[in-house]
Amino acid sequence: MDVEAWNSDLMEDMLPKTIFLICCMVIGLFGNGFTLLIYCVKMKMSDERYFIPVLATVDLFAATICPILGVMESRMIVTFNNASVCKIFWAAASFLTLMSVFVLAVIAIQRYLKVCGSVGSTMNIFWRRISLMICIVLSAAFAAPMIIFHSAVEITNVEKNLTGFQCARTNEEDETVVIIYGVILVLTILIIMTLLVVIYSKIALKLYRHYKSIEKHGNSMWIRQSDDHEMHTSDTLVTGSSDEHGSSKDYGLQEKEFKPQKIPKTKVDKDSKKTNITHKLTTMFMVITMFFILCYVPKVILLVMEGLYDGFWENMSDNLRHVLTLVNEIYIINNIINPFIYAFMDSRFQNESKNLFHCIKI
């Protein structure tokens, strides 16, 4: 038996993972591509949706690079001898994955300022750009070591007397450095997850109190001025007071006389509508964050187990390894699910999508 035959035997067990990754890539390409088309072409850039095209762009590339790397590792299990390709794809996949995480953290801070902050405490365009630059720098800083830590690693099958190559973490670096890096990476992700839970918990409490107040007081909580008439007061001098026959006597007193006067419509309704949009989009980002946490918890657990136990993957049974290998890729769902959330929760996205399909049919 040669290395190619050995690789073919191993590939059969990786088929479910390969199919899963290819499906994720196809869905991610179409979903995120369509999201960019709607938000960048059909809709004007707004403060509320500023980070959606950014997140969609990151997810588009992440849903392409990460599955390609996974498929290559699944199809070239012991024949991956190109060290440069291994390093580049690991660094790119790490950068895009972490970029998505950091952007979600920035979005959470923006929503907190909008919903829970004082009036005017929003994230202006300057700080939005600065926050994105920070996300890029942090992602690059965490991804750069992957170029050193990963390469085409030699693997030997003693029973079959064969030697192959895997795209995996090398054993040449100082183990202490690798452990420190892994601890910092895991702690960073856990801190961000905790931050997201705390921020959105406060936002959820704020929204709950807001809607409970509306339910309790109804529209009376809004000082609404409509196109109808608003009663206002004017001072008139009373020259007398009426006796029992209706005659008046002069006491030199003033009384209030209410007269209806038509006034222009104020911005109260507009502000109310804007507030509702803010709350709906905030709820949408809460759902996106919830799926992010659900998708990344298995990945973080496996990273911790891999760091705690030497030979974690090598010492388990083949069936368990195949299952956990697939579970290890679940995080990619985070990069493909957002377009479905937009379609269900952003009414403007729904309308623009319908208009686009209507134009295509015509």
From TrEMBL:
Q: Name one GO cellular component term.
A: membrane
| Keyword Transmembrane helix assigned | yes
Q: Does the keyword Membrane apply?
A: yes
Where in or outside the cell? Membrane
SUPFAM superfamilies, alphabetized: Family A G protein-coupled receptor-like
Q: Which InterPro entries match?
A: GPCR_Rhodpsn, GPCR_Rhodpsn_7TM
State the signal peptide span. Answer: none
Q: Which GO terms describe its molecular function?
A: G protein-coupled receptor activity
What positions does the domain G-protein coupled receptors family 1 profile occupy?
31-342
Primary localisation category: membrane
Which key words tag this protein in UniProt?
Answer: G-protein coupled receptor, Membrane, Receptor, Transducer, Transmembrane, Transmembrane helix
Q: Name one Pfam family in it.
A: 7tm_1
Protein name per Swiss-Prot or TrEMBL? G-protein coupled receptors family 1 profile domain-containing protein
The source organism is: Mytilus edulis
